[in-house]
Write a structure and sequence with these properties.
With 295 residues, the chain is an alpha+beta fold. It has two domains: 12-100, Phosphorylase Kinase, domain 1 (2-Layer Sandwich), CATH 3.30.200.20; 103-256, D-amino Acid Aminotransferase, Chain A, domain 1 (2-Layer Sandwich). Helix content is 29%, strand content 25%. The chain is built from seven helices and 16 strands. α1 (50-64) packs parallel to α7 (269-287). The longest helix is centred in the middle third of the chain and has 23 residues, at 173-195.
């Protein structure tokens, strides 16, 4: 699909790296596109089926873990306001109707393994998100317990790690502890569920918003975009694990001479196809269902 995504006549609330949010009166419609970002840059080549995987998997988790209040209402186009039903072909499989919530300006990052920026911090200082860790850990080592390492949510540029004190100051003391506890609970439940299906959830991030005074889980939940998913069968500490997420794309880009500033280089066809396959395999392993269009 095109990198641009518009629904003529439907007002757009926000446009992110991957998602488009449209006003639906009392509610909102979130559309997951096939865009992919890496190193805070939207790449020039979409990944076929990616948006549908993100939408379908998020809806699955929202339903499974409904004890944590969230914004999800429906993926069935029959439930969408009538104006959106004229765009059924564009929206099928990649859209959800949600309750409107005001996003909080933070990301709740949970780490269960040493990877990514956490590994780089550990190599430099022996800490991850300010938490002191034992010496001698390897790349992809399991942590003794999951760590809550929040960050800012930047509208432009890089998200920045923040301390627990900074996190409390940004969201307020009333919300800080419930957000941390909900994030840790979702991570633990999600990774136990995934482990039984041959996937290690190495880390993930959650986002929350407020609807009146109610705290809601929003955006996406335990997807290959918001998480590191590793195949358990081939996992080996000390090396960069194979993955079901966009690490495959990051690894390719790291192998080029790209300076990590727009525009990003085009992805080879084999990288696009392999990435699409990885996302879809994660969906099938976790839910038991292939890609589906919402009725």
């Amino acid at each position: 699909m095109s990198q641009e995504f518009n629904l003529p006549g439907m007002p757009k609330i926000a446009s992110g790296k991957v998602r488009e949010i449209f006003d639906a009166g009392e509610y909102a419609v979130i559309v997951a596109t096939d865009r992919i970002s890496a190193f805070d840059c939207i790449l020039q080549d979409p990944i076929p089926g990616k948006g549908q995987v993100l939408n379908q998997l998020s809806a699955y988790w929202f339903g499974k873990f409904s004890e944590v209040p969230n914004h999800f209402l429906s993926t069935s186009l029959r439930d969408f306001p009538v104006g959106f039903q004229a765009f059924a072909e564009l929206l099928a499989g990649r859209s959800m109707l949600v309750r409107k919530a005001r996003p909080l300006p933070v990301e709740c990052v949970i780490r269960g393994y040493l990877a990514g920026s956490g590994w780089k911090e550990y190599e430099t200082s022996g800490t991850v998100g300010g938490h002191r860790l034992p010496p001698g850990l390897k790349l992809a080592s399991a942590l003794s317990q999951p760590l809550f390492t929040p960050s800012t949510k930047a509208q432009n540029g890089h998200d920045e790690p923040i301390s627990w004190t900074q996190f409390r100051d940004l969201v307020g003391p009333r919300l800080a502890e419930p957000m941390r506890e909900a994030s840790l609970t979702l991570f633990e439940r999600g990774r136990e569920f995934a482990r039984d299906r041959g996937i290690i959830v190495a880390d993930t991030k959650f986002e929350f918003g407020l609807l009146d005074d109610e705290l809601l889980l929003i955006d996406e939940c335990l997807t290959p975009d918001s998480s590191r998913f590793w195949p358990a069968a081939s996992y080996q500490p000390g090396s960069s694990p194979a993955s079901f997420d966009k690490q495959f794309v990051r690894d390719y880009l790291e192998s080029t001479n790209w300076n990590k500033k727009p525009p990003a280089p085009h992805l080879p066809r084999e990288v696009i196809e392999k990435t699409s396959q990885k996302y879809q395999e994660a969906l099938i392993r976790l839910t038991g269902y292939p890609l589906a269009s919402n009725p």
